[in-house]
Amino acid sequence: MEARADRPLLRIGELSRRVGVSDHLLRAWESRYGLLQPVRSPGGFRLYSEADESRIRRMQAYLADGLSAAEAARAALGDVAFSGGRPGTSDAVPVGGEPSAALRQALDAFDEPAAQAILDRLLADLSVPAVLRDVLLPYLADLGQRWQDGTASVAMEHFASNVIRGRLAGLARGWGSGHGPQALLACPPGELHDMALMIFGIVLHRNGWRIDYLGANTPVEELARAAGLSHPDLVVLAVTRAETLGPLRAELAPLARRVPLALAGAGATLQIATAVGARLMAGDPVTEAERAGWPR
């Protein structure tokens, strides 16, 4: 720790120890959200103030309340009023708003160029997590419901899913690189819907993690074998139906004893997670990825 005449200044390592947040994540919060406002020492080191520490602690409190990282940072910086609910944010797209409606119209019309242009504009105007959370996830949920109701045809569902999967694959490019902690992501046998898991991996990678992605319909024994080879810091199994996980409890319990295992998706319940010794990720994929801290 170093000091100035008016208040103490901290090196990032000391600040990290005080607040319990890795220095890598602190730098990410500084560059992405402007949460920290360091000064430079004569030797060129960044030095952080007690005000920076206070903003970090406020952001941690907002994250614990369920806000996304972007929302929590804005709240901590005082850019939005917070009175117990989720603050409004200019980086959020209301469900059913113009961009969501335009994307649905283009995909329903089998108009890929128009859909790609809309996604290009959204990604230019908004952050990647905002587009994923506020546009693509609601659209995919709506599409799935319309398919179940019979108001969206099989062809329409396949076309839209392939367009969105292609865009997600582009965002996922290179997600196995880096020097951060490693996550192994998969869906269990019989689970074919993995785009929410892809979204989770994309946001997790943007928060410093490396991603090993096995995807849909992965046998548990293959997941365990991959975990034994890569020694991941986190294994996430995503499922849309609770009945899929029931028969797998005997296989998942020993896996959870070997590696940190989390269950995610609409089919993951606290009962099943507790029974196998796994963590439950009950939030949406973007929020859960932004909440994920670095392993200690």
Structure write-up:
The protein is α/β, with parallel strands linked by helices and 296 residues long. The protein folds into three domains: 75 residues, Multidrug-efflux Transporter Regulator, Chain: A, Domain 2 (Orthogonal Bundle); 75 residues, Methyltransferase, Methionine Synthase (B12-binding Domains), Chain A, domain 1, CATH 1.10.1240.10; 110 residues, 3-Layer(aba) Sandwich (Rossmann fold), CATH 3.40.50. The protein is built from 14 helices and nine strands. The strands form three sheets. A five-stranded parallel β-sheet has the order 6-5-7-8-9, with helices on both faces. A two-stranded antiparallel sheet has the order 1-2. Strands 3-4 form a two-stranded antiparallel ribbon. A hairpin with a 5-residue loop joins strand 3 and strand 4. Helix 3 packs across helix 4, helix 8 packs parallel to helix 9 and helix 9 packs parallel to helix 14. It is globular and about 65 Å long. 35% of the residues are buried.
